[in-house]
Amino acid sequence: MGQLYAWRLLSRVSSFRRASVILQHLRMSMHTEAAEVLLERRGCAGVITLNRPKFLNALSLNMIRQIYSQLKTWEQDPDTFLIIIKGAGGKAFCAGGDIKALSEAKKARQNLTQDLFREEYILNNAIASCQKPYVALIDGITMGGGVGLSVHGQFRVATERSLFAMPETGIGLFPDVGGGYFLPRLQGKLGYFLALTGYRLKGRDVHRAGIATHFVDSEKLRVLEEELLALKSPSAEDVAGVLESYHDKSKMDQDKSIIFEEHMDKINSCFSATTVEQIIENLRQDGSPFAIEQMKVINKMSPTSLKITLRQLMEGSSKTLQEVLIMEYRITQACMEGHDFHEGVRAVLIDKDQTPKWKPANLKDVTDEDLNSYFKSLGSSDLKF
């Protein structure tokens, strides 16, 4: 069909324009046929490349299905010793899922809101339980679904270009993909702070937080990858040795961390409360510029999302990853039926007026009964592993 279309075009143009028409058609064909995710066997490893650079490698259901299937195949393949995942384009590892498509699908009564979350969480669990060393090169923007593709793996490599955030409370959602498992396990109350405010950690702070296991200068990533691929039948210890050698040679200690050197005491004291209202009051009483700024940020978020998120992390702190993912699947389905997620998508991604009208608009109007409804069992529709 593509060739026929090209020849029809050629019949309508003068000969001196034919070359440019052919080139343009080929470019269009290549663009439309480009795979969203590249899956390659190279050296000792299976290499996954998220390949939607124009969309910051945002995760689609099709990508989730391809990655899961290939991950399971490589896990059983005796000639594959290592799995590497990275993003194309240089700007992002993965900026998250396509939440606009989720909102549109729900309004159209399609099944995407069930299928995507269910299959994404099953993939997150598969990464966590993968029997082969799994190396995520989190160079660039890593948010939402991109966090789920990386943080549960054995090795996560940050660079000075890494930008980590879980900004979901600002769109009427919550930090899912296992956020209820890994966030409360970060040092002190850091995870609670990141979850409620959507604060962006950059560069070396992604490693200092424990989100990354190693830090490597971005200019060395290509050489690092080639060295990993050249390993002969490597064990996890062999992979760790290569990563540590690059980590040790990095320029990591050149920059000081404002968050970790100046604000961790405030974060630990203010975010240790068991209610969102008390966290806000703690920030107000602290009165420092940092605390006041975080209070302003929190006050812009969905009140329902804030309360869901705090309970999610408190409960998740004592659950297994699978138990957390089951809990989070329940919450997603309730959020899809609610008001705030669709309003957040409208305000941030569609109309872009950045002024969502949350319902309820105040924390005091989000009752315990409301909150409980987000966590209740879905019966036979619950997530299963």
UniProtKB/TrEMBL annotation:
- Pathway the protein acts in: Amino-acid degradation; L-valine degradation
Cellular compartments annotated: Mitochondrion
EC top class named in words:
hydrolase
Q: Gene3D superfamilies, from UniProt?
A: 2-enoyl-CoA Hydratase, Chain A, domain 1
**Hydrolase recorded as keyword:** yes
Give this protein's Gene Ontology molecular function annotations.
3-hydroxyisobutyryl-CoA hydrolase activity
The UniProt entry's GO biological process terms, in alphabetical order, are: L-valine catabolic process
The UniProt keyword set, sorted, is: Branched-chain amino acid catabolism, Hydrolase, Mitochondrion
Q: Which family does it belong to?
A: Belongs to the enoyl-CoA hydratase/isomerase family.
Record's protein name? 3-hydroxyisobutyryl-CoA hydrolase
UniProt organism field: Mus spicilegus (Mound-building mouse)
